[in-house]
Amino acid sequence: MYFIDALLPIPLQQAFTYHVSEEQAHLLEIGMRVAIPFGKTKIYTGIVIKVHKDPPPAYETKSIDQILDNAPLVNLFQLKHWQWIASYYMCTMGEVMRAALPNAFLLESETIIALVSKEPRDDTKFSDDEFLVYEALLHQSSLHINDIRSILDRKNVVLVIQKLLEQGIIEVQEEIYEKYTPKLKRYIKLSVEFTSEEKLKELIETLTRAPKQRQVLMTLFMLSVQDKKPVESLFLQQKSEVTASVIKTLIDKGILEAYFIQKDRIEYTGDAASEIKALSEDQEIAFNEIKDSFKTKDITLLHGVTSSGKTEVYVQLIKELISEGKQILYMLPEIALTTQLIGRLQKYFGESISVYHSKYSVNERVEVWKNVLENKQKAQIVIGARSSLFLPFNNLGLIIVDEEHETTFKQYNPAPRYHARDSAIVLAKLHGTKILMGSATPSLESFINSKEGKYGLVTLNKRYGNVLMPEIELVDIKEKHRKKQMKDHFSDRLLEEIQEALDNKEQVILFQNRRGYSPVVECSTCGVSPQCPNCDVSLTYHQYKNQLRCHYCGHHMAMLISCMACHSDTLDTKGFGTEQIEVELKELFPEYSIARMDQDTMRKKHAYAKIIEALEEQKIDILVGTQMLAKGLDFRNISLVGVLNADNLLNFPDFRAHERSFQLLQQVSGRAGRTKKRGKVLIQTFNPYHQILQQVSINDYKGMFEQQLEERHQYNYPPHFRTIKITFKDRNYAKMQKGALWYTQALKMNLTENVLGPEAPSVGRVRNLFITHVLIKIPKGQSLTKTKLFMNKVDRSFKLIKEFSSIRTIIDVDNY
Question: Does residue 530 have a cis bond before it (omega within 30 degrees)?
């Protein structure tokens, strides 16, 4: 008898063994998908990781339902990479599998309920819920389990279904459905009997009284002769200037035939690839230094100031590798960046580019996956966000991680809580390839690794075209308020500079790292502000929907007319977000075009592309936004960048707050003056003498690096120590605290003073779950593997205690 070990997309540690026939065993390969039963009724998609003849000792095996693929969908490189992610980030292979595969590949069963027979039953024996289900099934042949949930208006319907099953009233079926639907394009051709010239002439003569049908045939003949390509139905309709019904009539008469061809959803339709720009002298030096560095180092850090032309250096490296037929992965932290970069790279590499990120539909992602797996030319260069590192590369030549310092490379929820930059380093090692990381403000970890010689280091200190770095001015708004020189949230200096830029037909970016209109609404009579019923936060006011909204759980309600506590109508807004800035700007500069770029305005698939295009075409004069603006975007006509309030970045309870503030302010400043004229940056703050702001104003990255490194050494934080954060969540506060204390004491038996907590976060309740954190610091001399093994033992013991069974524990390794 033959067996397979299969991975399931569920959070369990081990693979499961199933028996297969000899014929199936010969067909199956590692990496192929199979539909397999699990539990009493569920059917999942499993990935085959081993075919063997050893039966499992602990349980009797089930047989697989069906083989879903003709060839492996996942390769051995991926399985090894998944294993590393599961081990390093302390999660299960099933969780990694679910994150890695596009949703369309994870076929799951749908529970369908039907009556055994429609013969009359004694309905007096049914409970109210059972009768409702029975009555609904009398009128419909079958019901989906979600339909039953809707009928009964409750989530847990298993008991009701179970009782009806026991009585023999209903039967349960499990149906598997395919989530991926290929895109089919409809083409038109002449029927075989009319393909000869004589027959076609005869046919056209018979259609003298049907001029539109005749026009279709003439157009089809002309297009077929000209292009000698299949003629698309819609194109034929447009060229003939007729309606779809005319073509349908010709098909019904048997004169035309329709047929379908499967097409990719993502196709490049632009011009042929253009000549790649020559590098400047500084870029050429950097390019050669990178190549030299790759001779001895697998990882190289390119530290180039904003607008130094790092992308052009990447393009030259890609050009060399693409000619060798290698695959290139180009990772970016933000979807907005991919939008702008695609256009630039397509000019050079035409249709060799594919894009992979969460804003693409399931079907689009499946097609990119298959193109990468088959090593097609259209997927030689893959541009993507963090999930792109899970693609099935088999000829990987280079990984580029641009803006490597960005926090968005870290996945926080759900598991696996991996860091895409660090995982990409391991992926490059598995493939035996090189990785290039680029940033104007590298993370402390990467920079110290380059200083210690683990990574190669290449620097680009000058902007492209020798344009000067922007002039950065700190505006003391405490002083401006005292002198009454503030108008709304704008200092007189900022308003002067905005007006000057607009008068010169230049564009302005304004940065405020808070969305919504106002973070707090407060009654000025009694001081009460509306709170979220599910989380320990006040509700944010969104003026465009006239709503109060929680940014943690999504709870929302209409804006209050009067205070809920004292019923007075003295409600006042405190603080300000991007929405309020946009409203104020429209009053201050009514004749200019103002747009906003934040999470609220960027929800649609092509929203990024539209706003970037509008800015490039100078249809927008002032763009207001959150940190989305700061991430490597390249705009030619921005002369002024304004930061409305730098203090809310600095005063944040996180050991990385100062490093991140420096990076964010440097990056947002880098959007100004990227062509010929020197740009200007105005940073409004209540504390202009803050050390980080002083370092930002003179572009002193090394000063910030040395100061932060010293502070981290003093307080035992990364990069000197590794950190693992454990989060505890439960609806019962006392139980959650008790469980967290038990867990902490168990950890302290081995890890002593390196365990900190439990400590409540700044928001101690989210979605009605109370939260507390425990932080583990691991010194460099301590074995990370042994520490994790000990933690796993503690975690298993904790989960076996019945009292704590409802407490959810989340382990986050390298929680930065």
Answer: no
